[in-house]
């Protein structure tokens, strides 16, 4: 079984297409859990109405299937808590010009 840390590391290949930064460093992944039969990921977007939700959902699910071999992968878009720049890693904040 893959750990949460390993899932997050694997999800770093999924990029926000508008910002070009991975979804983990952007702080968009709120939960990543795996069992031997299923993987679930809760993620959010930088703002409500952002049009990339379906694209990210598909990329997250496909990445999970590819790296774990588990076919039952579900990515769920959530809005609570709302995303804010404080969720980003220091590196992501610096690359986007946010103060540290």
In short:
With 100 residues, the protein is α+β, with helices and mostly antiparallel strands. The protein has helices spanning 4-11, 53-68, 90-96; strands at 29-34, 39-43, 73-77.
List the helices and strands and how they pair.
Layout: H1 4-11, E1 29-34, E2 39-43, H2 53-68, E3 73-77, H3 90-96
What would your notes on this structure say?
The protein has a single domain, classed as GMP Synthetase, Chain A, domain 3, CATH 3.30.300. The longest helix is centred in the middle third of the chain and has 16 residues. Strands 1-2-3 form a three-stranded mixed β-sheet. The mean pLDDT is 94. With 100 residues, it is of the alpha+beta class.
List keywords for this structure.
100 residues, three-stranded mixed β-sheet, 31% helix, 16% strand
Biggest sheet strand order reads: 1-2-3
Gross CATH architecture: 2-Layer Sandwich
* Termini Cα gap: 36 Å
**What does the radius of gyration come to?**
13 Å
Unreliable runs: none
Helix content: 25-40%
Question: Biggest β-sheet, characterized?
Answer: 3 strands, mixed
Q: Please name the CATH topology.
A: GMP Synthetase, Chain A, domain 3
Mean pLDDT metric = 94
